[in-house]
Input
Amino acid sequence: MKWLEIQQSNPLQGRIKVPGSKNSSLGLLPAACLSDEPVHLHNIPDIQDYRVICEIAEDIGLKITKNGDQITLDPRGIHSAVVSPEKASAFRASYYFIGALLAKFKKVTIGYPGGDNFGSRPIDQHIKGFERLGAKCTFFKEYYQIEAEELRGNEIYFDVITMGATMNILLAAVRAKGKTVLYNAARDPEVVDVAILLNNMGAKIRGAGTDKITIEGVDSLQGCTHSVIPDRLIAGAFLMTAGLTGGRITVEEIIPEHLHSCTTKLEEAGLTIEMGDSWVTAYIEKELQAVQVKTGMYPALGTDFQQPMTTMLTRANGNSLVVDPIFPERTNHCVQLNRMGANIAIHDGSFTVMGNRTLTGNWVHATDVRAGISLILAGLVAKGTTYITGVEHIERGYADVVQAFGSLGARIKMCEDPAMTEIPQMAADSSAV
Ligand code: EPU
Output
């Protein structure tokens, strides 16, 4: 078993360079399949999801080579549009291979998406989008098939704002025949990043970053070089770390506008925020204050900020109400934080974080990337030692979490004992208060 061990640490201080965005990269890498020539990407984070994509790439004949910071994807040898159920279910965004392969191969066979475990995550809007482009979708127990002799542009209204479906249908529409218009599209920077790459490859996309995206289909796409945007979600979690530990942290090489909803909420909670063209500094000079948190799709406060923010609010003055309509069941971290002495009352569709709590180290389990980060943050301020299992989830989003937090002064290390197969019972039991 592998786990992270964290000792109560001094306030975290320093500057940290933010890596490339995970969620952008997961769209950009498959997007290269649409090209007829090699595509070069910079700043792709070396995370577990990337490694699974490399395995899928090998299976289908997409050649990926790495040279320092540059990854080259050569789609000229792609010979298959079959993605194994096992690999597809290793992460959520495997479905982007449908959008990326459908126009060229006419039929994509793929396993169901996996990834973070926080309740229902439907793909009906993806399916609706593919069908509106003329595809037929057939579902089997272990996998599904999307096929279309020819993709034809159409008008598509998404019933909910979804980043995943917006990106997926954008990918498919780029080589469809005629014009596609996406209404109620997601405006996330990651969608814009993928659209910029596609336009550099020769696509004709207008309106990415607004809720109406227009795509004129093209017959072929060329190679290009593109640099992934910085990971706003990682940046936001470090700023919260400053607020929680009473330190001062500067996140560098970021796009501050991508963090506006987050930095504004942190100011509401009492943090001082300073920003320049490509950096943001956060520190706290007064007491942390309770805030009301409601997540939404970009530019509202993203659901991925909710979990680390919850940890921060356990130390705030007062009680905070958190509502996450995007993923209402994303509360596993609350259960784990309660095992460390937090007092979080989970209601139907919301939860209340009681402030002024003293946390105590315990064995806790991370069920997804952001839950893992929220537990790391808790470990930094908890008395004694915190042990976090489910490390594989954290590694899906962070290339080297120990190095990143350690460079700011966190007392954190990775431990592994192959002989240990389950969480020590006594520690778990003694915490069940
Ligand atoms: N939704 C539907 N039908 C669909 C698709 C989505 O009802 O067909 C709903 C979802 O249930 C949710 C909302 O639409 O309520 C938004 O979901 P979205 O499709 O935007 O989420 P996603 O694409 O599956 C991505 C990120 C998540 C992030 C969400 C929301 C990736 C790989 N994942 O997921 O990131 O929380 O957008 O911003 O890009 C993470 O990085 O830790 C993470 C979970």
Notes: Residues 109 and 145 are 4 Å apart (CA to CA).
